[in-house]
Write the structure tokens for this entry.
Amino acid sequence: MAYSNKIIIVEDSKTIVKQIKLMLTHVNATVLNVGGGFGLHKEIDSYGHTADLILLDVNLKHESGLDILKELREAEPYKNIPVIIITESRLKDNVIQAKKYKANSYLTKPFTKQMLLDKIASCTGLDIHE
Amino acid sequence: MINLVNFDKLVETHMEELGVSKEDILDLFQDFFSELSESLMELRENIDDKKALDPILHNLKGILLNLKLEEQGEQVGHIYNLKDLSKETLELVIKDLAVFGGELKDYLDK
């Protein structure tokens, strides 16, 4: 059976989750969604303590995506998982913090399908051709 | 006022960009309508708590921007950036967003 890349979206807006899933419809990947840090750890652990990519929204309603990123980078099994953070263009502080916590890249809203695919390809090297 | 939108055109634009069916995009907008309704309810419930309003408006702005409703997103963003955000202003924004939501619902129910 062909390997399917595992991408986890950490996002609590069901609209954005659905939009990202539609952007990745034709991509060779299993795309999962969790609403926060607890769900993320559970999901990663269920897959042998790893994932091919995490798309992490910074502005979750009940917790900070930057805190989740910091925790990931401090924990041995998770620290090398590629993370792309999602933020808003005007929130430069988020980008600075994300770089400090070693996010692999960032996407600013609004972003398009092509922007997402380009980011995934450039920062993970995943074979995501449609 | 939240600007009016040509939903037909917007749906077409998303279909072209994502390469998916009209049903997929209508489904996406159905989710957006339901999230907008939840956000409006939360805004009304927290109208006196400015701290609680910020993440709700922030989230809404992000969704609007990503759905190519940039002008509407910027309008919402402008509101939470106001230092002297009054209850009256907020009530107007909620009313505006409710009208916008009603238009979207009408489009989805067609």
